[in-house]
Design brief:
Number of strands: 42
Shape: globular
Helix content: under 10%
Largest sheet: 22 strands, antiparallel, barrel
Mean pLDDT: 90
Number of helices: 5
Structural class: mainly beta
Low-confidence stretches: 1-37
Distance between the termini: 55 Å
Strand content: over 45%
Length: 756
């Protein structure tokens, strides 16, 4: 029975406690008047999940939304912060600042691959997964939509969409400044200013952020922190109301990151006291365990990581009366470089005659241009519709190297390998140019069948054309047949992926505060090329990695969802729940081939995902809110041609459960001062990392605490926050073969903010 499930019991008890506390609070407030100037009601959340302003309660989607105040109260600074308190989402950030992978309802992202969800910032879809892990500041709202959203929000939205809106300017001059000090010798400053250049016509907003810290994880061989971080971000926005019917927005965004990276460990290798490799125990595979954690690194080369991102977007809207035409254009450039020690990541520079423990680099340069035209009807009763076209052109160069570690450092390689005789001559060189063209047509119709019943039909057709040109200077064993400098045509590979993505939904309003909904939809995530030759390198690795191909097929999904939302106790309690089942064809997962520094995708033929979410929020008393959420995803491999023995096992990178609960109390200290106390507990369930389920990371529980004092008029605030308050040590990632990276320890920060 459900009540006997160990992983569900804590959250079910928490939900029961919320209801019991609600009854107690009602009894108390019946006898006591509010003396804190706080009303006892939950914040009304307006979302744009369907492209229109709607109450979150009335949207027939599984939505987790954060307002500007909620973002500030929760101390959300990075995407991982809101992911941690959103059921059925998980995010791993390892290797580099631009490398991450999201899992949403069991659909997972892999390195150098497409994300399983669309990320939309101010109405413009991000074109590269490396853009996602930016610092979040000056944000108006965040919405997480779970379930296929392709027709509304674009390519690769088979798992959902994340909508981020930055704060917008008005006629009033306004802004803020914030200073942060924290552990790891962190120093950060953020700020924004906005107003009118011409009242009611032309507006601006300028926002910036700068962070500098030494880091949290020790490199014991180099006697320094392995993960320093320096970030500078500048964002500018211009809004022009050309006329009553037309408006134009232009946004520019520049990000510069300098950080540590490549801080992996290799579990099979025993380390001596001085961090060098024990040559008698270099490959002890009995040590493989996702629960085995070493909270430091020992590499003799400092991992260097840089990421430069530049974005320019233009968005225009014109109201024809019968519909609004919206057009967007976006130009993006993302350049990331990583240089690090090679496996087995020790203080040694020469293992078995230099066959191991060299250097590795990866350079990625992505330029993309995207456009979208969308025609949307007014938000009226009866029939509502939307239709449009989308296009994306991407040029992507990537090179990956392994070099000889001569103890002299690592060259910053990009378009050319290092010659013999240099400080670290290149031993392995994989490089290619990728030219991709994506296009789509899409539409959506919502129709009020009755005053209580709404039907929706969405349809999207995607076509992705990919061309890869392999660098002929690679080793002959990794080149396409006939590929030489004199025969460049033989170095080119081409593939086209396409799919139709229909979605049908029904919503029934039981009454003014309750609804049920059902939807059935298909999703598509484009296939792509791995770097040429990785299949042969994987087969030759120790141990061999099977199933790797130079070309990966598209992922197709079919999802069924049922949901229910309600508001109870006069608006003081909200409940939302959804259940789903998704059939996945060719689900990707990530494999690392340490011998050549290759990061590749491998497909699993069939996976079934079954689960759901339940979320509750309640106002217990004036200023006192509590909330809890539970997400469950049962993943089962149904077919896997590479290794049929994996059939029936769990899909990799999919936590079987995610839960969060918390409480926040805002109360008056004096007529002019308020205090805010907040605590969040988040749990991620048991998680396997490969189709064979060779090892699992046990469930982890993290506690975040926050206390602040603020001016009652909202002019200023100061707060103390503690992330991972219990200093839980665990592996942020475990990659098949025993490659790991430790998680971050306890982090303490003090913030001081002034609003004007």
């Amino acid at each position: 029975m459900l009540s006997h499930s160990p992983r569900l019991r804590p959250t079910l008890l928490a939900l029961a406690a919320l209801l019991a506390m609600q009854d107690a609070a009602q009894a108390q407030t019946a006898e006591t008047k509010d003396s804190s100037n706080e009303s006892q009601s939950l914040e009304t959340v307006v979302v744009r999940a369907r492209g229109r302003d709607e109450n979150q309660l009335t949207v027939p989607l599984s939505v987790k939304a954060f307002s500007a105040k909620a973002i500030e109260d929760a101390g959300i600074r990075k995407p991982g912060d809101f992911v941690a308190i959103t059921p059925n989402l998980s995010l791993a950030e390892t290797q580099s600042v631009g490398t991450s992978f999201m899992t949403i309802r069991g659909l997972s992202q892999v390195r150098n691959g497409e994300a399983p969800m669309a990320v939309v910032v101010d109405g413009v879809i991000q074109s590269d997964a490396k853009q996602f892990t930016q610092d979040l500041f000056d944000i108006q709202s965040i919405e997480v939509l779970r379930g296929p959203q392709g027709a509304l929000y674009g390519r690769n939205a088979s798992g959902g969409a994340i909508l981020i809106r930055t704060k917008q300017p008005t006629n009033t001059t306004a802004g803020f400044a914030q200073l942060t000090l924290g552990t790891g010798h962190e120093k950060a400053v953020q700020g924004a200013v906005s107003g009118a250049i011409v009242d009611d016509k032309l507006f601006f907003r300028l926002a910036g952020s700068a962070t500098d810290r030494d880091g949290y994880i020790d490199n014991r061989f180099l006697n320094r922190k392995a993960d320093p971080y320096d970030n500078k971000t500048l964002r500018a926005l211009l809004k022009w109301n050309v006329s009553d019917a037309m408006s134009v927005d232009m946004r520019a965004n520049a990000v510069r990151d300098r950080a540590g990276g490549g801080n992996f460990q290799y579990q099979p290798t025993h380390l001596n006291a001085d961090c060098t490799a024990d040559l008698a125990n270099v490959f002890d595979f009995s040590r493989l365990s996702a629960d085995r954690v070493t909270p430091f690194v020992c590499a003799n080369n400092f991992g260097k990581n840089t990421r430069d991102m530049d974005e320019l977007t233009l968005k225009a809207d014109y109201d024809f009366g019968f519909a609004t035409l919206s057009g967007t254009f976006s130009h993006n450039k993302v350049v990331e470089f990583l240089a690090a020690d090679q496996f087995p990541y020790t203080g040694s520079t020469n293992i078995f005659g230099g066959l191991f423990d060299g250097t590795q680099t990866q350079y990625v340069n992505v330029k993309s241009n995207s456009y979208e035209l969308r025609l949307t009807s007014p938000s009226q009763k009866g029939l509502r519709w939307m239709g449009g076209i989308y296009g994306l052109h991407t040029d992507r160069f990537i090179s990956s190297t392994v070099g000889s570690d001569l103890g002299k450092g690592i060259l910053e390689l990009s378009y050319d390998p290092a010659p013999a005789g240099s400080i670290n001559p290149t031993n392995s060189w994989l490089a290619d140019n990728n030219h991709n063209k994506a296009s789509a047509v899409f539409g959506n119709i919502d129709y009020d069948i009755t005053p209580s019943l709404e039907g929706s039909l969405a349809l999207r057709y995607d076509r992705d054309e990919r061309r890869q040109v392999v660098d002929y200077r690679q080793a002959s064993t990794t080149l396409p047949a006939g590929c030489t400098a004199a025969n460049p045509a033989a170095c080119t590979k081409q593939a086209t992926y396409s799919a139709m993505q229909p979605k049908v939904s029904l919503r029934y309003k039981i009454d003014s505060s309750s609804l049920v909904y059902a939807s059935l939809g298909k999703g598509f995530r484009s296939g792509q090329f791995n770097q040429s030759g990785v299949a042969a390198a994987a087969a030759a690795a120790t141990p061999a990695v099977n199933g790797v191909k130079d070309q990966v097929g598209a992922e197709l999904t079919q999802s069924l969802e049922l949901g229910y939302k309600t508001e109870l106790l006069g608006g003081k309690l909200r409940l939302a729940t959804a259940v789903f089942q998704t059939e996945v064809t060719n689900a990707p997962y990530f494999v690392f081939i340490g011998a050549v520094g290759a990061q590749v995708m491998v497909g699993i033929d069939k996976v079934r995902l079954t689960g759901g979410e339940i979320e509750a929020s309640t106002s217990l008393a004036p200023g006192l809110d509590a909330y809890a959420g539970l997400g469950v995803t049962e993943s089962t491999i149904k077919a896997y041609s590479v290794n049929p023995d994996a059939v029936g096992k769990r899909a990799p990178y999919v936590p079987n459960m995610s839960a969060n609960m918390g409480m926040q109390y805002r109360f008056g200290l004096t007529p002019g001062l308020r205090m805010v106390l907040r605590g969040d507990v988040a749990q991620k369930g048991k998680q396997y990392w490969d189709p064979e389920n060779s090892t699992a990371r046990s469930a982890i529980t993290l506690v975040n605490l926050r206390a602040g004092i603020e001016d009652a008029k909202g002019k200023w605030s100061t707060s103390l926050s503690v992330n991972n308050a219990t200093n839980k040590i665990y592996n942020a990632e475990w990659v098949s073969g025993g490659f790991t990276q430790p998680s971050l320890p306890r982090i303490v920060r003090v913030d001081a903010r002034y609003n004007f």
